[in-house]
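haha ok so turns out i had the wrong file open the whole time. this is the CORRECT one, sorry everyone. sequence first:
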Amino acid sequence: MSDITWEAPFCQDGSNCFRIGTDADGNAYIAVAGQEDRYLTDSREALQALIAEIKAGKADHLL
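then structure:
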């Protein structure tokens, strides 16, 4: 496994923080901040698509 470069945590209202990371092999990672050893991974393209759908409001029903 390659080293993961994590972005700064993103927090909604000071809680529910998560982090996005990438590696040199083109993989993307998402984890709860502080639990980066327990992540989900997929391609960068899949993560970009997920973020675009969330920004478009297609996940609002889950909140």
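The mean pLDDT is 85.
again sry for the mixup
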